């Protein structure tokens, strides 16, 4: 019997590049529901988006928001806005859990502050 050769493995075809829709900071804040589109002077949520994008890479101030600069404007794609919404949800639930937990006691009693109106007790 002659040995049969296996058919060649199918090679994955590269996916077509998909052009996503991009939003500037104001439109991204509107898309996330942070600001009212009817009020043109409302800047609610825009600073939050910029601060989230400018967070340090080490994660000391929280996860950095994805985004990019295009033509000197900070832009966010629809998939990046979905990631930003997930980050905000994670941070808010973590903040709520931290509020529910009672503070850790050091075992040391609180120090009583004496005011000028109440003199210290004299030693007898």
What does the model show?
The longest helix is centred in the last third of the chain and has 23 residues. The protein is an alpha+beta fold. The chain has a domain of 79 residues. Helix content is 31%, strand content 9%. Strands 1-3-2 form a three-stranded antiparallel β-sheet. The relative contact order is 0.12.
Write the layout of secondary structure elements.
Layout: E1 22-24, H1 25-31, H2 46-53, E2 68-70, E3 73-77, H3 78-100
Antiparallel strand pairs: 1-3, 2-3
Radius of gyration: 28 Å
Helix count, DSSP H or I runs of 4 or more residues: 3
Average the pLDDT over all residues and give the rounded result: 86
Q: Show unreliable segments.
A: none
Would you kindly provide a brief summary of this structure?
The protein is α+β, with helices and mostly antiparallel strands. The protein has helices spanning 25-31, 46-53, 78-100, and strands at 22-24, 68-70, 73-77. It is built from three helices and three strands.
Features:
alpha+beta; 3 helices; 124 residues; three-stranded antiparallel sheet
